[in-house]
Recover the amino acids of this structure.
């Protein structure tokens, strides 16, 4: 369409709207991809293997030791004190320094099999020190298992020997 001797492309309103929508979709896609790729612990980035955001270096306390450097060191938790009705607890779920694997922790009530907490993967030398239980407990003592699942440090994340640590949740 040529008006008053002008040449060029004339865009109708619907074409401008379509181009704007395409531009916005491309921008949103770029932001989404940029956000996903910038997170090193994201499951899409690491093939479903997520490092626990709450895991941090652990320097306090006695590190368990057993046998050779190739063996997996497992910490003990004889009792875990909790406040009645509280979902937020604080216990150092530790993967001892020097272990050849990642740890994933589950706190499970022995009598019912109910899982109260599950961590993501914790690297050696780090601990998750704050947990949120699925529900608060009433006052009393509860036998529980801390189930430790392991995965190798290499890119295969192959399962290794895990463990079940017996504990008592003492709720006051």
């Amino acid at each position: 369409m040529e008006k008053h001797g002008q040449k060029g492309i004339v865009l109708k309103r619907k074409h401008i709207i379509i181009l704007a929508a395409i531009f916005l979709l491309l921008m949103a896609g770029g932001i989404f991809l940029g956000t996903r790729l910038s997170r090193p612990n994201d499951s899409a980035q690491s093939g479903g293997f997520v490092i626990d955001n709450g895991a941090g270096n652990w320097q306090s306390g006695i590190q368990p030791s057993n046998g050779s450097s190739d063996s997996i060191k497992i910490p003990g938790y004889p009792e875990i004190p909790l406040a009645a009705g509280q979902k937020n607890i604080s216990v150092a779920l530790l993967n001892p320094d020097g272990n050849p694997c990642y740890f994933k922790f589950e706190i499970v009530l022995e009598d019912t099999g109910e899982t109260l907490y599950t961590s993501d993967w914790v690297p050696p030398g780090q601990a998750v020190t704050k947990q949120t239980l699925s529900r608060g407990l009433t006052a009393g003592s509860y036998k529980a298992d801390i189930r430790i699942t392991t995965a190798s440090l290499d890119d295969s994340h192959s399962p290794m020997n895990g463990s079940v640590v017996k504990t008592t949740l003492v709720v006051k």
Notes: Residues 13-37 form the longest helix (25 residues). Residues 37-46, 62-68 have pLDDT under 50 and may be disordered.
